[in-house]
Write a structure and sequence with these properties.
The structure is a single chain. This protein is α/β, with parallel strands linked by helices. The chain has one domain: P-loop containing nucleotide triphosphate hydrolases (Rossmann fold, 3-Layer(aba) Sandwich), CATH 3.40.50.300. It has nine helices and ten strands. A six-stranded mixed beta sheet has the order 6-7-8-3-9-10, with helices on both faces. It has a four-stranded antiparallel beta sheet with strand order 2-1-4-5, covered by helices on one side. About 40% of the residues are buried. The mean pLDDT is about 90.
Length: about 250
């Protein structure tokens, strides 16, 4: 069997008397989108920070891309990228300049070619030479995710990547996340939006008060409740469908 891209056993973390993680166990398969679903305060960001070697744990073991986060943090950092709740882009620079800068910092060969490839991949080529300050929220988030792929990390952590986005921009980011998995990248996505986990994830883990309550496919989770009954009802359009019908294309014009 293929080894997990992320393997967590008994992970615990407390801040004084406040236990944030209480023995988390989780496996994430390579090349999949695994959603970590939970409300505010469930421990999602703390878990991501430990996996990204930004925070130490109190107990347990965590491995990312086969490397222990506690004993081999440098190897872990070589294999990952992290996109937080707020975009880490320089609005004074153009989209292309942001990508080239990150490529140079990561000592990637031919930064200009890498930048052009990522702009095309995330449908930002026409906006590549504009200052990021002129971008919409969805474009900024797509650029942020593109920057996280410089150096071709094996694992990408997305910590609530659609926070603060309007419905149209949110769908754009969803498309970008699907593209990551299609390209073979492992994605661990934290979210408090149920529909986001449902639309994007191959597997969903529900984190509550520092513990994983359940981890499985959407079908696995639905099977926990009684089977659905068939009822005939009048289906009304959702507000999201109305909004998108009125505003038109999901992509902003460059």
């Amino acid at each position: 069997m293929t080894a997990p891209a992320i393997e967590i056993r008994g992970l615990a973390k407390s801040y004084g008397d406040l236990a944030v993680l209480r023995g988390v166990d989780l496996d994430v398969a390579p090349g999949t989108v695994h959603a970590l679903l939970g409300s505010n305060g469930a421990g999602k960001t703390t878990l991501i920070r430990i996996l990204a070697t930004l925070l130490g744990d109190d107990a347990g073991v965590a491995r990312v891309a086969g490397h222990d986060v506690a004993t081999s943090p440098a190897r872990v950092r070589e294999a990952i990228s992290l996109t937080g709740q707020f975009a880490a882009v320089d609005e004074v620079l153009t989209g292309r300049e942001n990508l080239v800068l990150v490529a140079r910092l990561r000592h990637v060969a031919d930064p200009a070619t890498v930048a052009s490839s990522l702009l095309e991949r995330f449908d930002l080529t026409d906006a590549g030479d504009r200052r990021v300050a002129t971008y919409s929220g969805g474009m900024v988030r797509r650029l942020d995710i593109a920057m996280s792929l410089v150096g071709e990390p094996r694992v990408v952590f997305l910590d609530e990547p659609t926070t603060g986005l309007d419905p149209e921009a949110r769908l754009e980011v969803w498309d970008a996340i699907r593209a990551l998995a299609a390209g073979g990248t492992t994605v661990l996505l934290t979210t408090q939006h149920i529909d986001e986990a449902e639309k994007l994830a191959d597997r969903i883990a529900i984190l509550h008060e520092g513990r994983i309550l359940i981890d499985g496919t959407l079908a696995d989770l639905k099977a926990l409740l009684p089977p659905a009954t068939v009822e005939y009802v009048e289906k009304q359009p959702t507000l999201e469908e109305v909004f998108l019908a009125l505003v038109g294309t999901r992509r902003e014009a460059s």
